[in-house]
Write a structure and sequence with these properties.
Order of helices and strands: HHHEHHHEEHHHHHE
Subcellular location: Cytoplasm
Cofactor: Fe cation
Number of helices: 11
Distance between the termini: 22 Å
Strand content: under 5%
Enzyme class: oxidoreductase
Catalytic activity: myo-inositol + O2 = D-glucuronate + H2O + H(+)
Structural class: mainly alpha
Number of strands: 4
Keywords: Cytoplasm, Iron, Metal-binding, Oxidoreductase
Largest sheet: 2 strands, antiparallel
Length: 309
Amino acid sequence: MAAAVDSPPIHRDGASLEAISDAIDTVNILKDGPAFDAESQFDAAKDKSAFRQYEDACERVKSFYAEQHAKQTVAHNLAARERFHSPSRSRPEMGIWEAIEKLNSLIDDSDPDTELSQIQHLLQSAEAIRRDGKPRWMQLTGLIHDLGKLMLFFDDCCEGQWDVVGDTFPVGCRFDDRCVYRETFAANPDSRHPVYSTKYGMYSRGCGMDKLLMSWGHDEYLYLVLKDQSTLPLEALAMIRYHSFYPWHKEGAYTEFMAEGDEVLLNAVRAFNPYDLYSKSDDVPDVAKLKPYYLELIDEFFPQKKIRW
């Protein structure tokens, strides 16, 4: 595997991260949220007529994706996972609620463009799922789905905002035309690689979505942290790992790699998506009032109390 390349220290600017993340979310909301076992109801009266319009996105979003698309290479992703799994990497231990509160410190109250804190967004997602009567494991998934952004606090987990947020996609094969700003992948050296630039690249048709090397970000990081440290079902882990994989769950790209069982994962991610995005316009939750309920929920699926991040 490729060795990690020395890079300057990361500037952990919470306000800047949230500004980019919120700007991306603004254009990410689906026009027609597809159903899972039951169609979401909390968003029935919401206007969903003009979202994910990237041609009208602000320059911040366009610049972000230009950098992300240029730098998300196979070499970078192998190095990122090598660093994550390194026995020498310090892995802080903390509980889920403690992690939520730590992530909340990324918000800069002086930032005029940020109205919601992380904990408010996570509780909005969870509460929307709860109001629709969805299973307890899905409520918890709504509460924790963005905790991968904690990678900004830890050494050797990311190199900048470009490998924390934004749409995700597989590396090691041709970048699909249904990815946003497809033209900016021209700056990625893998787009000219004799193998990685081909349709199937280093994979094979029907190999299964779990065989794809997904672009590094908070989705993949949290999936790797939780996949063997919780009792969450496979569908919940799919919601966490693929909730930013819009080319797949929104545009229908990369389906040639799907194997038996992957349709279940795709349906789960599609079911989760409205709760992540449409809930942002809901009332601001009362954290103190809701905390006891979610502490009980956390204990149900994380009986060991502490997570190695």
